[in-house]
Amino acid sequence: MELTQANAVVMVILSIITTFGNFLVIYTMHRDPLKELRTIPNWLITNLAFSDLMLGLVVEPLWAVFHWVRGVYLYQVIAVVMHTAIAANFYTLTALSLERYTMLKTRGLTRSAFQHYRLVTSLAFIWFLSVGMAVLILIKPANVCTRTILPYMVGLPSTLILVILYMKIFIVIRNVYHKDFDQSLPSGDLPKMSINVSKMAARCVRKKELQIAKTIFTLLAVLVLLWSPTITAVTITSYCPKCKIDSATLNFMITVGFMNAAINPLIYAFQSQPFRNAVYFMLKGSA
After folding, report:
1. Domains of the chain listed by start with CATH number
2. Which terminus has fewer CB within 10 Å in the chain: N or C?
3. pLDDT (tens digit, 9 = 90+) per residue, 249-266?
4. G-protein coupled receptors family 1 profile domain: which residues (predicted)?
């Protein structure tokens, strides 16, 4: 694949932005100055930031270097780390969605299901699967792995699971809290003020859970939107040798895919008030 100098420069810029943004997410989570961030969803989002950091620190710089230095081993390193990071992205978003669905479905009564030891197990399983998928590149021909790993072993199953989970999540958000409120009312008359307070409490809980679900959904939508063209194009050309895509178009699609790792920190910042508060507090404290 021909990589132009313009592509290489764009990759360097993306590497700087991606590394800075995702390092900021990880550092903010580590510091947690206001003691608001260390929740199960945020730990999983930190894992997502770590996989994006792999792209920014390793894949994107090496992809830029590939413009000047060609070699099979360099390409294999890029492919292995890239497949690992993208697979970890999909699997982490699946774990996030499953955690949200469990919390909403059980009204938070089974929080222990995702406590520390379960979280560690989930993260270990995510990285075991991600590394395992990527290592197949070193065992089988690269073209075979490219057309099977990301589309059929990572992207398609994860996307199907996520679609089903999100259908269930929004059904639960729409129905469960109204049902809980109705069932919580006593048979006798309830003072109007008490009814209003109960409605406000139910509305606040629903709004908070919906906001978290929207953040995860946005992360998923951006991931699928930006990486689907590359995965689809590579899969088609692998199965159809006569179907050619020029290098400029393929390089552009790959660059768009890498933008996902740079955009994710912005999604956290725009949709997470506790994250914005923590960053502001650290900046204010260092001033």
Report:
1. 5-183+193-284 (1.20.1070.10)
2. C
3. 888 888 888 999 999 998
4. 21-268
